[in-house]
Design a protein that fits this description.
The chain has 13 helices and nine strands. By secondary structure, the chain is an alpha+beta fold. The protein has a four-stranded antiparallel beta sheet.
């Protein structure tokens, strides 16, 4: 059965003084649903309401642009919204329950809500439809996204020391090392190739999940090998620039690629066990702020991955030209 909206699109012209005037047009389609030019205009008219109600809209670059966003950006947003609402559709009764729960919480009745909406230049129907879409998005988050989002203490420390630390206070790195010496100091010497072969084998075993400590005990010729390559805590002022450059690229728990030190005649692999500094008190003060920031970023990342996967499965068509 052809929907009324699609029928309206098919016959979206009227005769006027011997000419045709376009009433509406299709901007895109997602599976069996269409996005019309009127949907784009409605988005522009209600963008302020979306900022208040839509959990996946507020704070985005599109929300910041608002009604000034290009038609292409709005259509792309509406396509993604269609994908979500098709997967997690909400009935009128379900939306009514959402609205009634909100009214109970705010101690308003429906007439007061309609009056407040009218004062802001919105209609209750628009509010109802945005609430429907918002409910679908919250269900997406609850059913598909929430369990995939996790921010660890190490994630917080990594972010702090890479992005928020002042850089004026020396950092302390807890490190482990696997080292294989090349006594020849000559790139074409047999000893060089043997050392290279051994460090590559160590790297391969690390990739298979072998504990760093066990490989260090078995394959490293560093003096720390008997303790699993544990170098302990080292202040960055005690570390040579060659080491420090590679250490500062690592996150807590991460293992470096193979590093060749020609000046020392060896290959080595580092593991960053922990980072500390005298700024730890500041880290404690802003820990919750960082956790919230990282959680938001991870939610956005996981939602983007989910939408991209669904796009691959959907039949999407867009009008070829947009402003």
């Amino acid at each position: 059965m052809i929907s009324a909206r699609f029928f309206f699109f098919l016959w979206g012209t009227i005769a006027y003084s011997g000419t045709f005037q376009v009433i509406d047009r299709m901007e895109a389609s997602v599976n069996a649903s269409v996005i019309l030019r009127s949907d784009v205009k409605k988005f522009q008219e209600t963008v302020g309401l979306r900022v208040q109600l839509d959990p996946l809209f507020s704070g985005t670059s599109l929300a910041k642009k608002g009604a000034t966003a290009s038609e292409a950006e709005i259509v792309d947003f509406l396509i993604e919204e269609k994908i979500i609402t098709q997967q997690f559709s909400k009935t009128n009764d379900e939306v009514e329950k959402e609205i009634n729960a909100m009214l109970t919480h705010t101690r308003l009745n429906q007439e007061e809500l309609k009056k407040a909406l009218h004062q802001e230049g919105y209609y209750y129907h628009d509010y109802f439809e945005i609430m429907r879409n918002s409910a679908s998005k919250r269900e997406l988050i609850d059913r598909e996204i929430r369990t995939k989002v996790s921010v660890s203490e190490n994630d917080i420390k990594n972010y702090f020391y890479h992005h928020r630390a002042s850089g004026k206070v020396p950092q302390v790195f807890h490190l482990q090392i696997i080292s294989v010496s090349d006594a020849s100091f000559q790139p074409k010497h047999r000893a060089h190739f043997l050392a290279q072969k051994n460090i590559l084998k160590a790297q391969e075993e690390l990739k298979k999940g072998e504990p760093f400590e066990e490989i260090a005990k078995r394959m490293s010729d560093d003096p720390t090998s008997s303790s699993g390559g544990d170098l302990g805590d080292l202040d960055e002022t005690e570390i040579s620039s060659e080491y420090l450059e590679n250490i500062k690229k690592l996150k807590i728990g991460a293992i470096s690629p193979i590093i060749e030190s020609r000046s020392q005649g060896r290959f080595y692999i580092l593991k960053l066990v922990n980072i500390n500094s005298h700024e730890s008190h500041r880290l404690h003060q802003i820990k919750d702020e960082i956790r919230n920031e990282l959680t938001t970023q991870e939610y956005k990342h996981q939602i983007a991955l989910w939408i991209e996967k669904q796009k691959q499965l959907a039949f999407i068509h867009k009008r070829t030209t947009h402003k």
